[in-house]
């Protein structure tokens, strides 16, 4: 009877108090690693290498084109008809077209005077200039201040109108669309758009409008941004490096090769007829500017980028504001790509190669692949290959390609070349946030249509902060309630970045002990950068 009783095999490793969780986990890992983990990770490596090659070829292509443009291409005033507008003794100012200037704003307490003043000081005949301040502010005090500023300039003879709406429907796109509905706009041929922190030079219109007057097929003239607070902290320096490449290379290449690029939403002048023909402003995504540009391009309109025409602006100087901005800039294009890709494919008014450029280069590589390969390859796949040594990443994919891409990206801001290595680490961290936003846009999920206005501090605020006396600063610190300080600390935390910091730290430690490629140096530095962003202290580093 005893022999007939069923027998169960109980592994020695899990008997009684000798239960070894680590050994069991190691056993499970070894069982699934060869048939499952290794093939999946190899597949991920191949996909990431393919994406890295796509980005590499895109960067090399634009690098070659920008060199040719700088050396051999004719200047814009040589490629297009350009005749400076001047007053006529007999006709007076009638040879100047009527220009509408729109300044959309939302609770812009710190910068409204600067933008309104810059617009009112534009060198253009007063009777041929109409300025609209499109105020969607929700703070009654700020609305009153903006309205009073408009009245002050109106008393000086400036044709400026203060315009509000009952609701913020459509956000910026809704405000711009509402502004174009005014009866007096029918006399305007062109509209210049400036965000509330932008300050164009007085000759801005005189240097740009003649291109639109002399070339009826041009719909948009885009100026370059310059940043008044680029040296404020390390965060603003990092942004300057990324945006300078965008303007120096991406916008210039698009303008020179296909007369197409994405409208930057501000510091640009549109032909109002082109806006109307393209269907006007739409609020279906958070990138209403890019949406309008793509639709106008599909109608056959051309765009011109003027790199020597510049408008001063302000960069986000807090990590919170920067993250909101980057979410909008990453989610919006992906969402627009989802909605317009088939419309672009079916379009019959533009050339085949322009379609390829818009779909593949402009949208797929720059707006989707660039974020994903940076995050998945350099922050996920390569660290995982340290834990799975059976998977090999070729050195050309792990080192050479990203090095060339980084060098090409640095051409826009030579003065910050010494910050290049930290810029790489910072961009890798932000790729997590951008990739998440890209997926939200592609899937049109959750925060796909979230619009948070970028916080602006203004020059006066920065100056006041720097000029605070030591006693006042100490007094402020002493009067802060501990509870409020703690809540602010919690608000600064970015848990996803902190989680990846822990993951990379574990991978770095494993590579330090068992690895053969010395990846731990990069992983520990990347861990530090993820931790800095995770604790929300990037904007405080000067």
UniProtKB/TrEMBL annotation:
Cell location: Golgi apparatus membrane
Catalytic activity: GDP-mannose + (glucomannan)n = GDP + (glucomannan)n+1
Domain Glycosyltransferase 2-like: 190-387
GO biological process: cell wall organization
Pfam family, one: Glyco_trans_2_3
Membrane topology type: Multi-pass membrane protein
Descriptive protein name: glucomannan 4-beta-mannosyltransferase
Gene assigned in the entry: LOC106756209
């Amino acid at each position: 009877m005893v022999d007939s009783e069923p027998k169960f095999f109980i592994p020695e490793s899990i008997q009684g108090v000798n239960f070894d969780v680590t050994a069991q986990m190691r056993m499970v890992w070894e069982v699934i690693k060869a048939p499952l983990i290794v093939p999946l990770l190899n597949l991920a490596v191949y996909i990431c290498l393919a994406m890295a090659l796509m980005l590499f070829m895109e960067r090399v292509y634009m690098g070659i084109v920008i060199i040719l443009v700088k050396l051999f291409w004719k200047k814009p005033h040589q490629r297009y008809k350009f005749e400076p507008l001047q007053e006529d003794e007999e006709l007076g100012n009638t040879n100047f077209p009527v220009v509408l200037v729109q300044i959309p704003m939302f609770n812009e307490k710190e910068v409204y005077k600067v933008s309104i003043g810059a617009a009112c000081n534009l060198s253009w005949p007063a009777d041929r200039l109409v300025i609209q301040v499109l105020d969607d502010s929700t703070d009654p005090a700020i609305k009153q201040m903006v309205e009073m500023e408009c009245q002050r300039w109106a008393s000086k003879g400036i044709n400026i109108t203060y315009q509000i709406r009952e609701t913020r429907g459509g956000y910026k796109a809704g405000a711009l669309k509402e502004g174009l509905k005014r009866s007096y706009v029918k006399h305007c041929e062109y509209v210049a758009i400036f965000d509330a922190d932008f300050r164009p030079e007085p000759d801005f219109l005189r240097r740009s409008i003649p291109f639109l007057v002399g070339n009826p097929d041009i719909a948009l003239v885009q100026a370059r941004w310059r940043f008044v607070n680029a040296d404020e902290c390390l965060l603003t320096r990092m942004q300057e490096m990324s945006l300078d490449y965008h303007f120096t290379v991406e916008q210039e290449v698009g303008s020179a090769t296909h007369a197409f690029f994405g409208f930057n939403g501000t510091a640009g002048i549109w032909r109002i007829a082109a806006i109307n023909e393209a269907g006007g402003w739409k609020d279906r995504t958070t990138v209403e500017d890019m949406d309008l540009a793509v639709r106008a391009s599909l109608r056959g309109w051309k765009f011109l980028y003027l790199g020597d025409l510049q408008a001063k602006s302000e960069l986000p100087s807090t990590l919170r504001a920067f993250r909101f901005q980057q979410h909008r800039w990453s989610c919006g294009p992906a969402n627009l790509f989802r909605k317009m890709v088939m419309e672009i494919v079916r379009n019959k008014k533009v050339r085949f190669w322009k379609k390829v450029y818009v779909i593949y280069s402009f949208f797929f590589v720059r707006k989707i692949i660039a974020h994903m390969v940076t995050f998945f390859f350099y922050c996920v796949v390569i660290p995982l290959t340290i834990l799975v040594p059976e998977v090999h990443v070729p050195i050309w994919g792990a080192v050479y390609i990203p090095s060339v891409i980084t060098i090409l990206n640095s051409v826009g801001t030579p003065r910050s070349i010494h910050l290049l290595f930290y810029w790489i680490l910072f961009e890798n961290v932000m790729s997590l946030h951008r990739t998440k936003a890209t997926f939200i846009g592609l899937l049109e999920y959750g925060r796909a249509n979230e619009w948070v206005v970028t916080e602006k501090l203004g020059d006066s605020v920065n100056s006041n902060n720097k000029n605070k006396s030591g006693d006042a600063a100490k007094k402020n610190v002493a009067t802060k309630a501990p509870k409020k300080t703690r809540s602010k600390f919690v608000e600064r935390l970015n848990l996803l970045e902190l989680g990846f910091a822990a993951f990379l730290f574990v991978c770095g430690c494993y590579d330090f002990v068992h690895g053969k490629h010395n990846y731990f140096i990069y992983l520990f530095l990347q861990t530090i950068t993820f931790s800095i962003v995770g604790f929300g202290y990037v904007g405080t580093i000067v």
